[in-house]
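pasting for ref
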Amino acid sequence: MVGGLRGRLPAHMQISEMLIREIMAGHLTEGSKLPPEREMAAGLKVAVGTLRRALHDLEARGLLERIQGSGNYIHAQQSHLGVYAFFRLELIEGAGLPNAEILSVDRQTKPDLLPRFGIAREAYRIRRLRRLGGKPAAIEEIWLDASRAQSLDAKSLSESLYLHYRYALGFSIVRVEDRVSAGAAPDWAPEIFAPRPGLVVGLIDRLAFAGDGASAEFSQTWFDPAMARYVARFQ
């Protein structure tokens, strides 16, 4: 396990991922000038050094141009993949930084109702609450093929599962297939998720593929359509 990746993402990474999502959503456009660093850090309630680490990350990805004596400018025309590159939900009023809260993790035989994926008879079932910009916007049930991990527990998981897969489990998700529809919120939905069990909400069925070409994960995401929307952008 790479240090600093357990639990919540480091503060500087949260900021850089938030800015990447704002760029992808078109809220930060080519040539936009960011506020002065001390003002921006104060607005985000972080140390200036933390902000500078985030800006350095964006600069390294080709998404930011830092001009001495002038300021920091968005350079949005470069190809980029952030930690949340495959995360398609956005707040209706803006992108919103995703955060995840693990509700449960257990290993069990794959239910017959799941589509075929992976090679094992068992899978790790991960249930999570998803917040966008701090707002409870979705709940997820993720099934990771048991052949991909000897063990899995809530305390070891990174805020970003795909980051955890890459650094802790040794494989990366490189492609996903999403099917968006509507479905009833499940009976395990926590009270903080506004739509109550049985209420029809947005539903995303996802099959995720690893770099070796094999399907590694199936997931379902129920999202509150009054709060969030599914967005896919192509360049």
